């Protein structure tokens, strides 16, 4: 299934749309190139594109399915965010501990192939105290990561 609107373009979330509009020509070029980027990465990583996902302000986020039937998320950053090198390095080093698991990274576009997480914590029926405990446990895992150690991003799928 293609994540494209009737006019052939991606359906950007309002905050992302506003961000790319503020980027001017670079933003327009990114939007125009987005379908090609999605198709190329889907072919390279053997993914079936799904629906665009809500949320976000600095990327286009779309659900994808691997050939093994695993649900994942493809996150294509806007041009002003694409060169952010720390994010994939930290995610790779964390290996899913305290952070979303990184399955692949395209250094040219900055695109991340990520595990698909469950429902947002704020939307779960858990009492606030339990949500706080879950957040604290997650932060403890994340804070144990040594970001000074470089991560090997090669060969990830």
Keywords:
34% helix; 5-stranded antiparallel β-sheet; alpha+beta; 4 helices
What does this protein structure show overall?
The chain is an alpha+beta fold and 157 residues long. The protein is built from four helices and five strands. Helix 1 (14-22) packs across helix 2. The radius of gyration is 16 Å and the shape is globular. The two termini are 21 Å apart. The relative contact order is 0.14. Residues 1-7 have low confidence and may be disordered.
Report the β-strand fraction as a percent range. 15-25%
Number of DSSP E strands? 5
Report, as a whole number of angstroms, the end-to-end distance: 21 Å
Summing up helix and strand content along with how strands pair, one would put the structural category as alpha+beta
Query: Whole-number average pLDDT?
Result: 84
Radius of gyration: 16 Å
Widest β-sheet, arrangement of strands: 1-2-3-5-4
Total count of helical runs of at least 4 residues: 4
**SSE ordering:** HHEEEHEEH
* Proportion of residues in helical segments: 25-40%
Main β-sheet description: 5 strands, antiparallel
Principal-axis shape = globular
The stretches of 5 or more residues where confidence is low (pLDDT under 50) are 1-7
What's the short story on this structure?
By secondary structure, this protein is an alpha+beta fold. The protein is built from 4 helices and 5 strands, in the order H-H-E-E-E-H-E-E-H. Helix 1 crosses helix 2.
